[in-house]
TrEMBL record:
<protein>
    <submittedName>
        <fullName>Uncharacterized protein</fullName>
    </submittedName>
</protein>
Length: 1200
């Protein structure tokens, strides 16, 4: 099996921040082979191309490896070099894991070559011949030499001669010591009395002479004037290179790791960075990834060592010293067995790392002291690389290496889980022996994948446990998975939990797992601090150990398996009596505890959502009732006359409605909770009672609550007896409140007041009683008409959300007094007569969201600055605070003529959203924004150009800009990431693609592309469609999305052009690039294929993938789509790939065409060479595109 390393880049899914780092698991070679055959049979080329999207490196086939027993056969004259050079060479070969045949027995002159030696030569892949002074004196050596050269001629046997203190000329001409030896052999032959033997010796003499001449002409190494250690290292490297022994290692196949492999490979090639830390949660694949990369690259270093599972091994006594000894042995210390002290070992390691270029992988570090003992504090030789895997990212820079005056350069790589497709692949590997789940199992397989959340270990364990099980067993296993985590998985995950340094951190983990997933981190931190925890330091510890992460919107996120771990730890406090636990999050259990009034002082938090209870119970009840009613109805009408049956049916229907109504009423009363249920819950801090009907006095309600959520609260105001003096967060969303209280109350600790979607809320006030209020959320309060002026006294207010408060006529003027307000949202407040007065003076304001405000044009009579967005949009005077960092003005009917003129003063603005407005070009004041990073013009239907976008721009979003024609960037700008979609009119995105009429293309450019005899190409009869933008026209398309620049077009026709050389009748092609001499440099490849077009087929979007197996290079790009308007018949697709730096003569190349609805009738590739004479070289019309390739490699991604 040819060893191949394929990395496919899917261009239309390449976006910044895209999920990059994934899990890793392995296939054995038989499993991989079986999987490939099944997938190819069942799913064809698309799935085969999907497999190219992973990192693929397969082992050398068994049939190939079984032919050889040794890598190298050593031929030498024992008397000359046995105890010196050859012995050292033999040891170096063994140290490099090169299987070497070394026969250490002297054979007397005249003895025939032994059969075991003949067999060893024939079963070795290479021979190293040490041609020393007396080599030719041994007939045994000469017989070996003859046989070795015969093997070279008859097979691919590699021969490396070493001229050990002899001259190649002496060997070639048999002079000096070689001449003397041959003279003695001749004398012996002539003295032989037996004629037959004399004749045999004469033939041998001829063969020996010929062999000596032949071996002297081979490329080898000379020892004269060279240090033997350097010579031996060079020989070992030469053998490694020529035998490709790095590919012979059993390197596993990986799933979903292409991005991580690229990152680590880049690190290994980067001279600046010395240490890489791969961190992630337990079972995510850190060990497998580092092992893969180590096996792939360890031969690039003078010394290497992989220390696996350090965390577990160090739990046992003296195991750290054992690890040190293993490391010393790996990096070449010969005294490692005599070391019995860890400090002595650490000192030796330090010295060795300073002498040799070393690759060191330390897997599973869990204490920084381990690093001090395994790598020391003095650094290492330039070019050395240290790869560390850990669950705790904070450990690494605490070690002694980073305490020095010049700490090493360090980079971090966070490894995350698999996506859905990769998860299915891994699950299929272990559950179906490499097969993709078939239709019977696919639904259950998706559920397992969802439960595992892309966690490789969970997928492996789940798949292995379900192997050869039927669908019913899968369903039962899923039910079990939802109740409890597999012990093997939990054991791995709990290691991180057990490593938490304090009980505070462990309690914090359990609190977050039960109540705070998806909540804002600042919101959670404020509540947890009032729950007598230390959240800031604790959250940092959880994040460093990959037990928690903070999302892009500042929300707390936790892998589902970790959340289940945290909840299971709480469940173990009292498996069968939930009221004896510290936290109750399961709705049914919470309902039972409250309904039966079993609450205890142990409960710290409780969650109950009656919608979850009602949905479950009503579904169960209605199902049972309808089944019983149906049985009764069928039994009743079965033997009655037709008229009676009709009457009975109507009677039963009437009874059914009455019964359901009564049942619903009694059922509702049955589910109500009494407030007495909270008596005795003295430690209750967190209480969520959503859509719960409470009966009784609220004086029994817990008084120590920190967070109270009561969605769907039925009363018009909060009862006065409700004691909320310690409350940090009050969430009354979706309730029937009209006012908060009849009388204002003092809530000294309240920081978060959330009243979203309280549709009956008319007025909100009493802010004097909330001195610490930081966030006020009134979004969706459609009846709200007044916000009390007392809001101006909330000195600490950071966020005010009034979005979609459609009846709010005005904002309180006192908001100008809010000197700490950072975010103001008035989206959809379209009934404002005027904008907030004095907003320009709110200098701390950073985020303003004013979408769909539709504000009338008024000029305030006050002298204060006023924001006015005129409804007529004929003029606009807007004054905004210069402190704004983010501004959104979507769907405000802004045009170029009415665009706010005050934008130029927004020197701090980084994010701007102008989506849905009526601008036709990018306004000058936007281009002048000196810090703008993100610009969104989505849905601007009149927008035609975005020219010279700001130089600081990092992200440009312009989907649904149906009139857009051209996008260009500032000449000094770094390339931004782009997000765009359908646009018929777009002709150019600078540095990404360009579309023009084929008739306008320069003739010299077409010649350079190798498009000769191209009358069919220049035919203007047929419309085309951009592969990126679905744009119609007579098109010559240039794509610059990834490393290659690709030129594309197509035309009506049924055969390939005459100049296409490599032709296939299938959708794939494999060939070796031919050589045409040094003067012919490869410029690129032309790919051409013929498909059939039928009127019923929608616009197709085939892709082409080109892979260079020799250079481990792969790229994929989409060819132009077929327009729906094209006539039926055959169509020829043509593209030129600029690949001059990626391809050379002799490279193995594969090309695939892929689309499930495209049948390739004929497929061909031709190589384009640069064969101009130096004297006739003209200006290259492709020079600009070559420079674009360099721009593109700096980073551009286009999401379509």
């Amino acid at each position: 099996m040819v060893v191949a390393f394929l990395v496919a880049v899917v261009l239309d899914n390449t976006v910044p921040g895209s999920r990059q780092e994934r899990g890793v698991y392995v296939w054995s070679e038989p499993e991989a082979a079986q999987r490939d055959s099944v997938v190819a049979k069942d799913y064809g080329l698309p799935f085969r191309l999907l497999s190219c999207m992973m990192v693929v490196l397969s082992e050398i086939s068994a049939s190939s490896s079984s032919t050889y027993h040794y890598d190298v056969f050593l031929s030498f004259r024992g008397a000359d070099t046995r105890y010196g050079f050859t012995d050292h060479l033999h040891k170096a070969l063994l140290d490099a894991a090169i299987d070497t045949f070394f026969y250490d027995v002297e054979i007397q002159t005249g003895e025939d070559l032994k059969p075991e030696l003949e067999n060893a030569i024939k079963t070795s892949r290479a021979s190293v011949i040490v041609l020393s002074k007396d080599y030719a004196s041994s007939t045994w050596c000469l017989d070996e030499l003859v046989l070795i050269l015969e093997q070279r001629r008859s097979s691919k046997h590699i021969v490396i001669p070493i001229f050990y203190h002899v001259k190649p000329t002496d060997v070639r001409k048999q002079q000096s010591s070689f001449g003397d030896a041959m003279a003695r052999h001749k004398q012996k032959m002539e003295a032989e009395p037996n004629e037959k033997k004399r004749s045999q010796l004469a033939n041998k003499m001829k063969n020996w002479e010929k062999a000596l001449t032949e071996v002297a002409d081979l490329k080898g190494e000379e020892a004269n004037g060279r240090r033997e250690t350097i010579l031996i290292e060079r020989i070992v490297k030469e053998i490694n290179s020529r035998l490709e022994l790095n590919k012979q290692s059993k390197i596993p196949l990986l799933i979903g790791m292409e991005s991580s492999v690229r990152t680590i490979t880049s690190f290994l090639k980067d001279d600046a960075t010395e240490i890489l830390t791969i961190w992630g949660m337990g079972g995510i694949g850190k060990t497998h990834l580092s092992n893969y990369v180590f096996k792939l690259h360890y031969r690039d270093f003078e010394r290497s060592s992989f220390l696996e599972d350090i965390e577990r091994r160090c739990m046992q006594p003296n195991k750290l010293l054992d690890l040190q000894k293993q490391l010393l042995k790996d990096i070449g210390d010969i005294t490692w067995m005599d070391i019995h002290d860890a400090n002595v070992a650490a000192s030796k390691i330090e010295k060795l790392l300073l002498r040799k270029k070393t690759l060191l992988v330390l897997d599973g570090i869990d204490h920084f002291e381990q690093l001090d003992m395994l790598v020391g504090t003095r650094g290492f030789l330039p070019g050395s690389k240290i790869i560390i895997t850990t669950k705790d990212a904070s450990l690494i820079e605490k070690c002694g290496l980073f305490m020095s005056q010049v700490p090493p350069k360090h980079m971090m790589h966070l490894l995350k889980g698999l996506d859905h497709k990769e998860s299915l692949q891994l699950l299929g590997l272990h559950a179906f022996n490499g097969d993709y789940p078939n239709k019977r199992y696919r639904k259950q397989a998706r559920k397992v994948v969802k439960h595992c959340g892309g966690h490789p270990l969970a997928l492996k364990v789940s798949g292995s446990s379900l192997r050869k099980q039927d669908v019913a067993a899968w369903k039962d296993a899923l039910k079990l998975l939802q109740k409890e985590t597999n012990p093997k998985i939990q054991q791995v995950l709990q290691i991180s939990f057990d490593s938490l340094p304090s009980n505070n951190d462990k309690e914090l983990f359990k609190h977050i797992a039960c109540f705070f997933i998806g909540k804002d981190s600042e919101f959670a931190e404020a509540i947890l601090r009032k729950c007598d925890m230390i959240p800031t330091f604790g959250l940092s510890n959880l994040i460093d150990r990959c037990l928690l992460e903070v999302g892009l919107d500042n929300e707390l996120r936790m892998h589902q398996l970790l959340q289940e771990l945290g909840r299971d730890l709480v469940r173990q406090e009292s498996p069968n009596e939930p009221w004896e636990r510290s936290r109750i999050w399961h709705h049914e259990e919470s309902y039972d505890v409250l309904k039966q009034e079993k609450g205890t002082a142990k409960i710290q938090g409780l969650v109950l959502d009656m919608k979850m209870i009602e949905n479950y119970t009503s579904h169960r009840t209605s199902t049972f009732t309808m089944e019983r009613f149906g049985d009764d109805l069928r039994r009743k009408i079965g033997a009655r006359p037709l008229l009676h049956r009709v009457c009975d049916i109507f009677s039963w229907i009437w009874c059914l409605f009455a019964w359901v109504f009564l049942l619903r009423s009694s059922y509702s009363n049955e589910l109500d909770i009494k407030t007495n249920a909270f008596i005795g819950m003295d430690k209750l801090r967190i209480l969520q009672l959503n859509y719960v009907q409470l009966h009784g006095s609220y004086k029994h309600f817990p008084t120590c609550l920190r967070w109270l959520s009561m969605h769907g609260f039925p009363l018009s105001y909060l009862p006065l007896e409700l004691q909320l003096g310690n409350l940090v967060a009050l969430d009354m969303s979706y309730s029937n409140l009209q006012y908060l209280w009849k009388k204002p109350k003092l809530l000294r600790s309240l920081k978060f007041l959330i009243l979203s979607c309280c549709h009956e809320l008319v007025s909100v006030g009493g802010f004097d009683g909330f001195p610490l209020l930081e966030r006020l959320i009134l979004a969706g309060c459609v009846s709200l008409v007044e916000v009390c002026e007392s809001i101006g006294n909330c000195d600490r207010l950071l966020l005010l959300d009034l979005s979609e408060c459609g009846n709010l006529k005005k904002l309180p003027r006192s908001i100008r007094k809010l000197k700490n307000l950072r975010t103001l949202s008035i989206d959809g407040c379209s009934n404002h007569g005027e904008f907030p007065v004095g907003i320009k003076d709110m200098e701390p304001l950073e985020v303003l969201k004013a979408d769909n405000v539709n504000i009338e044009s008024q000029v305030s009579s006050s002298s204060s600055s006023v924001i006015v967005v005129p409804r007529s949009l004929k003029s606009s005077t807007i004054s905004l605070p210069g402190s704004l960092v983010s501004l959104s003005l979507r769907n405000n009917k802004l045009s170029n003529e009415s665009f706010p003129v005050g934008f130029g003063s927004l020197s701090m603005l980084e994010e701007l959203d102008l989506g849905g407005n009526q601008i036709d070009s990018l306004p000058d004041c936007v281009r002048s924004l000196s810090r703008l990073r993100v610009l969104n013009v989505e849905g601007c239907g009149r927008l035609k150009t975005v020219l010279c976008a700001p130089r600081t721009l990092e992200h440009l979003n312009f989907p649904d800009c149906v009139s857009l024609q051209r996008v260009t960037f500032h000449p000094a700008a770094s390339f931004p990431s782009l997000h765009c979609e359908y646009s018929k009119t777009l002709t150019e995105i600078e540095g990404v693609f360009k579309k023009q009429a084929i008739s306008e293309v320069d003739e010299e450019m077409l010649r350079r592309l190798g498009w000769i005899n191209r009358q069919h190409v220049k035919d203007d009869k047929f419309p085309t469609m951009s592969d990126l933008m679905n744009a119609q026209g007579k098109t010559f398309l240039v794509q610059m999305i990834d490393r290659p620049v690709v030129f594309s077009t197509y035309f009506q026709g049924n055969r390939l052009p005459d100049w296409v050389t490599h032709i296939s009748c299938s959708s794939e092609l494999h060939f070796t690039l031919p050589s045409y001499g040094k003067s012919c440099r490869i410029r690129g490849l032309n790919v051409c294929f013929v498909t059939n077009v039928v009127s019923s087929t929608k616009s197709v979007f085939p892709s082409t993938t080109i892979t260079n197996s020799t250079k481990r290079y792969s790229d994929k790009i989409y060819v132009p789509r077929r327009p729906v308007a094209l006539e039926e018949g055959d169509i020829v697709w043509l593209s030129h790939w600029m690949l001059e730096n990626e391809f050379k003569d002799g490279d193995e190349v594969s090309v695939y065409v892929d689309h499930p609805k495209v049948h390739v009738k004929e497929f061909g590739v031709s190589v384009v060479y640069d064969d101009d004479d130096d004297g006739n070289r003209r200006e290259d019309p492709l020079a600009d595109y070559k420079s674009l390739k360099l721009i593109h490699r700096r980073g551009c991604s286009l999401c379509l």
